[in-house]
Amino acid sequence: MDRPQTSRSRAVAVSAMGAAAFTGRVADRGPRRAEDLHVCPECCSELVLPIDWAPATNHQWDVRLRCPDCEWTGGGIYSQAIVDRFDEVLDLGTEALLNDLTLLARANMEEEVERFVVALRGGHVVPADF
After folding, report:
1. What does the domain layout of the chain look like in residue ranges?
2. What whole-number distance in Å separates Cα of residue 4 and Cα of residue 25?
3. Quick one: which of 68, 72, 71, 65 has its CA closest to 36?
């Protein structure tokens, strides 16, 4: 029976993977759809970001895009629905990034506490240290 993964075990797994845990995701699906503004048309990275945007015509936006993985830049005029979907994907990415940051910070803090406890038990920390 598999144990549910706690935040501690997930944080340890993330820190054990190192930088590879935080690299851009490459799409496992077919070609990029026009409405997938977050997917790079050059390298299929799902990390494309808006670098500039402005209202265009009725219910449309002029959006400039950039891929941080391959340095592709592009953009165009997109409908409100496509821009709204892009905004949702960006919000989900921000949430995932903040969750990963929280896990990494927690793992780092737990390591520091464990080292402090070992030093305390070993008599390596004395009142004069404070």
Report:
1. 25-120
2. 25
3. 65
Each residue's pLDDT tens digit, 4-54:
444 444 444 444 545 444 444 443 445 557 679 999 999 999 999 999 999
The answer to whether the beta carbons of residues 41 and 48 sit under 8 Å apart is no
Token readout for 34 is 């026009």
- Residue entry with tokens 């501690």: 8
Distances (CA, A) of 114 to 22, 106, 118: 25, 12, 6
Question: DSSP letter string over 11-51?
Answer: HHHHHHHGGGGGSPPB--SSSPPTT-TTS-TTT-BS--EEE
Angle subtended at Cα 14 by Cα 11 and Cα 18, rounded to the nearest 5 degrees: 135
Alpha carbon 16 to chain centroid distance? 17
String of DSSP letters for 55-86: E-STTEEEEEEE-TTT--EEEEEEEHHHHHHH
**Dihedral of alpha carbons 73, 62, 35, 37, sign:** positive
- Give this prediction's pTM: 0.61
Please report how the helices 7-17 and 80-121 are oriented relative to each other, as an axis angle in degrees rounded to 10.
100
